[in-house]
Design brief:
Length: about 160
Amino acid sequence: MKLSITPKRWLVTVHILFAAIMFGNMITFLILSITAATANDSQLMESCYQIMHVLSKTSVKAATFGTIVTGILLSVLTKWGLFKFYWIIAKEALTIIPFVLNMWAMYYWSLDAINMIQVTSKQADSSMLQTELWTGIIMQLISLILMFILSVFKPWGKRQTAAA
């Protein structure tokens, strides 16, 4: 079963919206991480991490799940398929990064940062957690940007099928 043009357009729209929310979340995490890293006030730092933690439990997970589900539906219900084109396979591989980071890592890193700030009230003690968060944020932003580029340019063409 393949989607007709109107349902396909709606599904693409929902997919783009989920991807945009995921990207917006990571930009928000980046801004909050910069704020926390440069803050001299432990309450401000804790607030930044609290916001990240709330986002990691809600819109980050919802957007990640929604993007993956709509992406799979688009592949299966259109001419693209899951493994017909190299650019789709590359997007599937890149999807592993935000999936793992968004479903587990961001939640635990932000929670650990909150706990550390509450216990120590010192910025210096949170540098390891800030490094973990920064690494996760940068990895996600790079993978999302690469997936956007792959979606627009669709490089490498169709895979060759084996002769029967």
